[in-house]
Amino acid sequence: MPEIPPLGIGRVRAIRNWPDPVLREMAEPAGELDGDSIARIAADLLVTMYDAEGRGLAAPQIGIPRRIFVYDAHWKTDAPHPMVMVDPVITWHSAATDIVEEGCLSIPGHPVAVLRPTAITVEYFDLSGSARRADLTGIEARIVQHEYDHLNGRLILDLEEPDASALPDV
Ligand code: ZN
Q: Under the phi-then-psi rule, with left for phi > 0, alpha for psi from -120 to 50, and beta for the rest, what region is 129?
């Protein structure tokens, strides 16, 4: 697990697996919680994500139906760069899409080919409560869309691309 000082308050939590009903809830806004509670949830999410060797984790996956997720796209091969998004909203997505096989820590051993836009804009709050905006492409755009779906009770099982196996190899 990467050594990141702010994670000191975090602890590894049990990851809820499908079909746990918390994974199907519409998560409530996180902004109405106090800052310490948000920071603790974020730290638990990051510690749990790194412990599980994942690249993204949303609060419902540790049994907390609040709109917070964390991700770190490249920590396995690069320096850790933990990201926390509180009350995120995807405000734009590209018309261009691609299909990529995704895994989910709540659905172990069942990767699913999912079609998604290749670029997004997401507006969110950081841990200091500041409004932020990120324009994302590639793996970051894909992870954020996956985690955002968790906040709305949506899973990769709902998005399975039926014709993915019939796609021509190009
Ligand atoms: Zn997932």
A: left
How far, in Å, from the CA of 120 to the mean position of ligand 1? Answer: 18
Catalytic, out of 101, 147, 160, 161: 147
Q: Is 147 a catalytic residue?
A: yes
pTM above 0.90, yes or no: yes
pLDDT digits (tens, 9 = 90+) for 81-106: 999 999 999 999 999 999 999 999 99
As a whole number of angstroms, the distance between CA 116 and CA 97 comes to: 5
Distance 65 CA to ligand 1 centre (A): 14
Rounded to 5°, the CA angle 39-126-66 comes to 60
**Which are the contacts of 158, defined by CB distance < 8 A and separation ≥ 6?**
none
Instruction: Provide φ and ψ at 123, rounded to 5°.
Output: -110, 140
